[in-house]
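Researcher: If only I could read backbone structure tokens as easily as an amino acid sequence. Walk me, if you will, through where the backbone shape changes along the chain. I have put the entry right below:
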Amino acid sequence: MKQITIISGKGGTGKTTIAAAFASLAKNAVFADCDVDAADLHLILNPEIKETMTFKGLKIAVKDPAKCTSCAKCLEHCRFNAIDENFNIKPMGCEGCGVCEYVCSTKAITLVDRISGHAFLSETRFGPMAHAVLKTAEEASGMLVSLVRENAKRLAREQNRDLIIIDGPPGIGCPVISAISGVDLVLVVSEPTVSGVHDAERVIGVAKHFRVPALLLVNKFDLNIQKTEELEKFCLDSGVGLAGRLPYDNLTTEAMIAQKTLIEYSDDAPISKELSRIWELLRGVIDGQ
């Protein structure tokens, strides 16, 4: 079973559009949306949910009013301003650190599991999909990404699929590390801007640190040729291969509005043909490993 993760150093570079296009080109694959903080692959693939599971992330403090003596120790020691002047716990502020439970002499406060999100097993027109959603202001997104990946592997085993395409999260934090650990290849999608260059360099550094092979794809390359060349030079100097360039094209927006992949919307457009070529390149790389 091979795994490809599509990541970007920053949001808005087009990785989900590219992941969706690959979904329509792949054969015998499972798709995983690991951008659990802002999942949107479902907007294009329109999955039919077959199974829902609860995700429990950080714990939350709960107070038993009958045991509380209003000693104020919890309020004194809480570093997150999660306890009000009446010694009630504010759920949105609680980080589940447990200090209030520790200092409470009457055992009026305990830590309990809280539902932080949900994970789904679904079916799309291209094949099975694992995805999830993290509730607003919840933590432990890296743990939820790991659950999505495990669910994708489960689908692959059950349905005898030989490839998992992962739409990864942006940035370089825990969710990204969870999304790329142990995969066969990462495709870094960047754009030719100052922030695009900077963040691509950072996320490529993360991939190299974890010894995951990486390729670079420059999206909307024709917006700034100088920055595109700067990106490509950095990759060549760092030993990172170039997957290709995609032009700026209004078809991307049109396809998105139509809830179709670029390949479905216009398979003979230059951008679609280039995506097809890049997909064949990626398949060749992982098949040759």
